[in-house]
Specification:
The protein is of the alpha/beta class and about 190 residues long. About 40% of the residues lie in helices and about 20% in strands.
């Protein structure tokens, strides 16, 4: 697991260790420096012990909060220093952070699985939970991701978001199912 603890905004339900870029973005460069050193050290440990690596999951926060250049730097370090895993997933995350350049960087550096996480396709709920993207932003990003040769695209939905009626969740589910993602992950809201 490689964690990127930064997001464009902090969702009201989030219990992950992460912070908004408006408040904590100045920490991204030193965090990235330290993380790259850690990836290199971990790779040395794998080599010295002859260990294999089954999977890498880069999550967050939102990994695509990093700029394309920062993402390229980190993923290049991963590609150069860690054994090539059977499965490599990057949580592309929030549609307001996804660009073609970032998706192409993810592919070029060996990750074939991504997750595009809208959580809901209801714009009122998105605003209420602190997301800074619209449902249309999600649909556009999903279409962009689908146009690239990813082996697996996952979409996350959360049932029970604050103030969201069951009917809205059902509508989100139907809209996302029509996209035919390779994986569809449902979470039940769990306040911690």
């Amino acid at each position: 697991y490689i964690g990127i603890p930064f997001c464009p905004s902090k969702c009201v339900y989030c219990s992950f260790v992460s912070g908004s870029t408006a408040q904590w973005g100045h920490l991204i460069p030193p965090y990235l420096d330290a993380l790259c050193r850690e990836v290199e050290a971990a790779g040395e440990g794998f080599r010295q012990n002859g260990w294999k690596l089954d999977s890498i999951y880069m999550g967050g926060g939102t990994p695509t909060t990093l700029t394309a250049a920062q993402l390229d730097r980190l993923l290049t370090e991963v590609e150069q220093h860690l054994p090539h895993p059977r499965e490599f997933t990057v949580e592309a995350g929030r549609p307001d952070t996804i660009t073609a350049e970032k998706l192409e960087t993810i592919l070029r550096c060996g990750a074939k699985r991504i997750s595009v996480n809208t959580q809901t396709t209801d714009d009122d709920t998105l605003r209420r939970i602190g997301r800074t993207h619209s449902a249309q932003d999600f649909f556009d990003c999903y279409e962009l991701a689908r146009s690239l040769p990813f082996e697996v695209i996952n979409v996350d939905l959360i049932a029970g978001l604050p103030g969201e009626p069951v009917e809205s969740f059902c509508k989100s589910l139907c809209q996302v199912a029509q996209l035919r993602p390779d994986n569809l992950t449902f979470h039940a809201l769990s306040l911690k």
